[in-house]
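User: I'm new to structure prediction. If I give you an amino acid sequence, what do you actually give back? Let's try with this one:
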Amino acid sequence: MRIAYLCFDFGVPMFGTKGASVHVHETVQSLRNLGHDVVVYSPLPTDTGYCGDDFTALPVEEFATCVLDNLAREPVASSSHLPKEWRSLLYAEYVQKSLHPRLVDFRPDFIYERYSLFSYAGVELARSLGVPILLEVNSPLSLEQARHRNLVLARTAEELERLILNSADAVIVVSHALSDWVGELGVPPARIEVLPNGVNPQVMDPSAGRDKVHTRYGLTGKRVVGFVGSLKPWHDLDTLLDAVAQLHHRDERYHLLLVGDGPRMKQLQARNDPYVTWTGAVPYDEVPSYLAAADVVTVPLGAGRDCYFSPLKLYEAMAMAKPVIGARVGEVEAAIADRETGLLYEPADAQDLARRIEEVFQMPDRGAGLGASALRWVLANRTWDQNAQRITEIASSRLGVRPS
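Assistant: Good question. You get back a string of structure tokens that encode the predicted 3D arrangement of the chain. For your 404 residues, that looks like this:
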């Protein structure tokens, strides 16, 4: 099949290290591995600009560029998120005109879009071309934007979100919590498909060496507790830091390896914890080595509202055959069978998390059995190739079928 893959989120570089970028790249590659012709469209140019026939950057040009430049210089721009929201709305109009002739020539069988806030162009293009659109939703964007960042045009965002989701032929969500949220917006259950994140076994190789990372950061001889991910508010790193502090107080071999970057970096570093190594963001092809460097990998999350996502780094750690410890919430709890494929702890309970970490180190095999079971489970249930196969099955069932 010919597939037009749209990602109009200005915060998701096509070839970056972010989890969202990995999701896009791996999904596209797995669809191509199945023999499908996939062309990707994004507003963001890459270092090489136009990358062959399979990726097209569609940045704003001409008068649209002039409008955006002037919006950025408006007095309101210095203290408001409004210019970025205007940019997304303007881009939705702009990209319809610039992309439509390309898609007429490409003749896609369906459009697959990673949903982004204010992005209604995909739905409009699918209607004009008479093809189905599958919309991938990774978070409740209007809620997330208002809660953790800034959202000025809240009413417009919420109403557009409802309209866009209800206009899609299928809404593919990454968690059951998102399925419930999409249903609350009026999307019929028959149009909602749950498809969590996955792993690429060729990238996440358990044989990846750990020595280079141990040597670089002086970790030899330590009991290394690992975290890999973005330092976002929903990752309950305060609890993780407190848990390792308790362990380090009893045994100075305990050490936390924090891999990633994000908005909480400076705040957390201000604690000046001597038992923590901060690496910042690392290239994606080096992530396996950093996971290999950890004796146990943690997935800390708080209880409550932010349990709607699919834990990509959990699945990657499982694919590395690592003993994993996750908070008893959402898709983390669904993925970990306690004491079979990992350990669960009560969210926001540093003492319970410390006990679970210590439990792994007290096992005769230091958690190797848990890691082996985790590897078997993730390969059977969470790979990008499996996701790609399911996407094509969903698309095939929707071909020629429009929402009533």
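You can read the tokens as a compact description of the fold. Here is one thing that stands out. Residues 85 and 169 are 26 Å apart (CA to CA).
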